[in-house]
Specification:
Length: about 500
């Protein structure tokens, strides 16, 4: 700890001068020394920068990955970190046999014996496999090596054995698809068969009924829904509040999507019942529906991987029900971020509404979150904030007794309690007594893959945690806003 920072720089210059081949590389080494001296004066931080951030913290685009890499480097280079045994064949044999590693003398070894003294360098010495000849020791070692997890097993990549069936099913599907591609001959795409045509007509008719019903429900919410909505004759257009304007814009965008889907399905129905349509869009949409996929033209409201068309229609029904519920109540209701196309605008509207009520500038207010002690939203919610529900926590668990994050198996997920969000006047932030982790919130579906890009995070919620926040960052703990599985709860 008392080593001066110049020694680290000298070591870096010495290593560069031994391996550099030109004056350019040597000049780059001096630049690295100058950069290191400008960054910090602490030897510990210099060691983190020289041996951690420079080799391992390169061009990382995602801030979550960069934070996890930085915390791992700091923990590995900390003075309290345990030293790992050195690499080599003795260490491997010691790990396989459960015997002491290099530098440690086993209980049954004679005094003064040296590793590898019984044979040539690199041979299997009786020091590690006592009582066996060289051939028997080699055969035993090879048998133990064969018992190690293979690259096709989950343990090889750090996964638990419970995912073994899913990995085997995924490999089987990939192999079957590859065999079908290798054995089948290319044939031009022809018209669908009679059973496929009947199933496609049924799907198109069912989709038309669903989107027409949902569009009618949105229109019943009022003339304000939609961008081109006009007030009744003789009535002035009222100026809505920020939160109400956000809900109207979301409902208008959803209504525009329903109308577009309705036009596409009507064109496809005419194509199936009458003469073929010359529109390439209509043909592409019918082909995607025939293959059991949602057309890319309709994927504005898809949270995770594109589901089947029937499941996608159910998500539209759930979103429409939630939007109608929000438009009728407007205040004092729990919100699900998965119901919106632009959920970040919800928090902007909350800040605007609070600043307008206090007649202050928008930049004077920031968001503050509080995890409620129950899964149910508060019954006496007021206008100074909003309540978020339907958050699924992954890579960690929530302790209801202590109100903190705790470690759990990576494959498990749990529900977060309701979270109260309000806009408060910016002030000096005091450091909390309990460690808190800024948990990112994404949009997704239950038990579905979610890309953890920093730009896709909707909001960061401060969650108290029992372990260190760096551990949460390394395990990539995050929350996902999902839609309700039933059609009764909001």
């Amino acid at each position: 700890r008392c080593v001066p920072i110049s020694l680290f720089s000298s070591c870096a210059i010495h290593s560069l001068t031994r391996s550099c081949r030109s004056q350019v590389e040597l000049w780059q080494g001096f630049k690295a020394q100058e950069r290191l001296s400008r960054l910090t004066d602490s030897p510990k931080e210099a060691l983190w920068e020289l041996a951690g951030n420079i080799p391992y913290g390169g061009h990382i685009l995602d801030s979550g990955d960069a934070e996890a890499t930085r915390s791992l480097c700091q923990q590995c280079l900390a003075p309290s970190a345990h030293r790992m045994p050195g690499p080599g064949l003795p260490t491997l044999l010691a790990a396989l046999q459960g015997s002491p590693g290099p530098g440690e003398e086993p209980a049954n070894a004679p005094r003064g014996s040296q590793p590898g003294s019984a044979g040539q360098p690199g041979s299997f010495s009786p020091l590690f496999l006592p009582g066996l000849s060289e051939e028997e020791a080699a055969a035993t070692t090879q048998a133990l090596i064969r018992q190690l997890p293979s690259p096709m097993e989950p343990a090889w990549v750090g996964l638990c054995n419970s995912l073994k069936g899913e990995l085997a099913a995924g490999r089987s599907q990939a192999m079957l698809a590859a065999l079908q591609v290798a054995q089948g001959l290319w044939q031009p795409r022809g018209p669908p068969s009679i059973p496929q045509r009947a199933a496609l007509q049924e799907l198109v008719g069912q989709g038309l009924e669903v989107v027409q019903e949902l569009a009618g429900q949105l229109k019943e919410c009022g003339w304000e829904v939609g961008v081109r909505g006009l007030p009744p004759k003789g009535q002035p257009r009222p100026k809505p509040r920020p939160l109400q304007r956000f809900l109207l814009e979301e409902a208008g965008g959803f209504l525009a999507l329903l109308q577009q889907v309705q036009r596409d399905l009507q064109c496809g129905q005419e194509h199936l019942q009458g003469p073929p349509c010359s529109s390439p869009r209509c043909a592409a949409i019918l082909h995607e529906l025939e293959q059991g996929r949602v057309p890319p033209h309709w994927l504005r409201y898809t949270l995770a991987s594109p589901p089947a068309p029937q499941a996608w229609l159910e998500t539209l029904r759930c979103r429409c029900r939630l939007l109608c519920y929000y438009l009728k109540a407007q205040t004092g209701v729990p919100y699900r971020l998965a119901a919106f196309l632009h959920p970040r605008r919800l928090f902007l509207a909350l800040r605007q509404e609070t600043a307008r009520a206090a007649k202050q500038e928008l930049h004077c207010y920031a968001l503050e979150q509080q995890v409620l002690p129950t899964m149910l939203p508060p019954s006496n919610a007021h206008d100074k904030g909003l309540c978020l529900t339907g958050l699924e926590l992954r890579h960690a668990a929530w302790d209801m007794h202590s109100g903190q994050l705790k470690e759990t198996l990576p494959a498990q997920s749990c529900q977060l309690p309701a979270i109260w969000v309000q806009a408060t006047f910016r002030s000096w932030k005091t450091r909390p007594c309990v460690p808190t982790y800024q948990c990112p919130v994404f949009l997704g579906a239950p038990n579905a893959f979610v890309p953890l890009g920093s730009q896709q995070a909707i909001i960061h919620v401060a969650l108290p945690c029992q372990m260190a926040p760096e551990v949460c960052a390394q395990q990539r703990v995050y929350a996902v806003s999902v839609l309700p599985e039933d059609n009764t709860s909001p």
